[in-house]
Design a protein that fits this description.
The complex is a heterodimer of chains A (about 350) and B (about 100). Chain A has about 350 residues and is an alpha/beta fold. Chain A has 14 helices and nine strands. Chain A has helices at about 25-35, 70-80, 95-105, 110-115, 120-125, 140-150, 160-165, 175, 185-195, 200-210, 220-250, 260-275, 285-305, 315-345; strands at about 5-15, 15-20, 50-55, 65, 85-90, 130, 150-155, 215, 220. In chain A, α6 links the parallel β6 (about 130) and β7 (about 150-155). In chain A, α10 (about 200-210) crosses α11 (about 220-250) and α11 (about 220-250) packs parallel to α13 (about 285-305). Chain B has one domain (about 15-85): Alpha-Beta Plaits (2-Layer Sandwich). Chain B has three helices and four strands, in the order βαββαβα. The chains are: A alpha/beta (about 350), B alpha+beta (about 100).
Chain lengths: ~350, ~100
């Protein structure tokens, strides 16, 4: 559990003592956000599930439901600035609203369970909950009502629109209901994809570096020092083209399939590397790097479907059926050619 | 969202207009404005914008909407392939996840 300096004290309503939260972000919250955006401690950035008070809510105040991923919770409490409201945090095992709903963790069952655990029917007089729209993938509003008597109202996609939503009489416009994926949002999710490779990000380049010392004349560590860094640069260039450059430029790259977007960008990067001399001068080595860069970039770009906000499972399966074998072949043939190029002097 | 339409003619979304009671719930939960209400019935206006998240089907009281929903995520599908299960982004063991 992360530290909880967002709790400013205890709010008492009749006999109930409920933690009261600050709507402002502190430096700790900002730092935490930055860390999880870069994948550090992302799987353990949690808030304790339960009921929280914002301002001085009473029995008529609105109840907003959130996931217990701290970033989800932080966005919600910040959006409630100046309001008197309740926040009901359900246990989504520290996963954000949309992903948790997709996995069936932000579910009808969990919402119902939380309402009962926190005796919400004894805290408020009304019978209405506001859930983030994206939780609808896991929560059936009519089922919650049937089981608890609380009617579910799906709010806007973004917490930042809550104020306008409330002022408009709990009505969201179509714009507030639609998920977009502008550059700013894409840049936010790219860092996590960069760390997709985890420890292989060090292991594989290190292996290439060491292998660079091989030749028909035996092994020379000096040669590895001389040429190995180029292999490392090429690998990272291909990888980053797929998981960072392609996602950033996503809507402007031709093709609909992410794998083709990545393949195209992989060839662009490969051409640049060829011009700068990073592919060396050996024709087999050049071909090898072209194949590996393109294959790697294509795979990583395809992987970005998971971070994107508009790809369907049917589409991704269709795309992968063709793309995955091609990507494996590109990298495998490229690798074989690269090793061969070490031993063949032309 | 121009430039943000994925593959066309692949989604499994189906709407049985005869069962629709015009409650508008699908228009409220869909994150891609796929549905519209006309003459008190829902209809699919942007089929290729559907990402098969399943929110509409789950929240359709009359069961008029069906869709094979799941994670539109290559890593998740790959996970499923490797483990021999349905596509899943439940990658808690590897520590990297959406």
């Amino acid at each position: 559990m992360t530290n909880s300096d967002y709790i400013t004290g205890t709010y008492t309503l009749c006999d109930l003592e409920i933690p009261r939260v600050d709507t402002r972000w502190t430096a700790t919250d900002l730092w935490g956000t930055l860390k999880v955006r870069w994948s550090f401690g992302r799987m353990d950035y949690k808030v304790k599930p339960g009921l929280y008070a914002v301002g001085s809510p009473d029995r008529q105040s609105l109840v907003f439901v959130s996931a217990n991923y701290k970033l989800s919770f932080d966005h919600l409490r910040r959006a409630l600035e100046g309001m008197n409201a309740w926040i009901l945090v359900i246990n989504t095992r520290g996963i954000n609203v949309w992903c948790a709903a997709g996995k069936g963790i932000f579910s009808t069952k969990e919402v119902v369970r939380r309402i009962r655990i926190d005796h919400l029917d004894q805290v408020v007089d009304h019978r209405r909950l506001i859930l983030p729209q994206l939780s609808a993938t896991g929560v059936a509003a009519h089922q919650v009502q049937k089981m608890t008597g609380f009617s579910v109202l799906f709010g806007p996609v973004k917490a930042a629109d809550i104020k306008v939503f409330v002022e408009a009489g709990l009505k969201a416009t179509e714009k507030m209901r639609t998920v977009t994926f502008p550059l700013k949002e894409r840049l936010k999710v790219i860092p996590v994809d960069i760390f997709y490779g985890t420890h292989y990000l060090i292991l594989i380049p290190a292996l290439f570096f060491l292998l660079s010392g091989l030749s028909s004349g035996g092994y020379s560590f000096e040669m590895a020092l001389q040429h190995g860094w180029k292999a490392v640069v090429n690998l990272f260039a291909g990888y980053l083209t797929g998981c960072a450059v392609t996602p950033a430029l996503l809507p402007w790259i031709p093709f609909r399939r992410f794998s083709l977007k990545g393949l195209l960008m992989g060839f662009v990067t490969a051409t640049l590397l060829l011009i700068t001399g990073s592919f060396g001068t050996h024709p087999i080595e050049i071909l090898a790097w072209f194949l590996m860069t393109a294959g790697l970039s294509s795979f990583m770009a395809m992987n970005f479907t998971g971070s994107s906000t508009f790809t369907s499972i049917s589409g991704v399966q269709k795309e992968m059926k063709v793309a995955l074998p091609v990507q494996i072949a590109l990298v495998a043939v490229g690798l074989a050619l690269w090793i061969a190029s070490l031993f063949i002097t032309l | 969202m121009n430039g943000f339409v994925y593959l066309t003619d692949v989604v499994t979304l189906e709407l049985d207009a005869a069962k629709c009671n015009g409650c508008r719930m699908c228009t409220r939960v869909c994150p891609h404005a796929v549905f519209e209400i006309k003459d008190r019935k829902a209809f699919i206006r942007n089929r290729d914008h559907c990402m098969e998240c399943g929110a509409c089907a789950l929240n359709c009281v009359t069961g008029a909407i069906t869709v094979r929903s799941g994670v539109g995520c290559a890593a998740g599908i790959l996970n499923g392939l490797i483990r021999g299960t349905e596509p899943t982004c439940d990658c808690s063991s590897s520590g990297s996840c959406c």
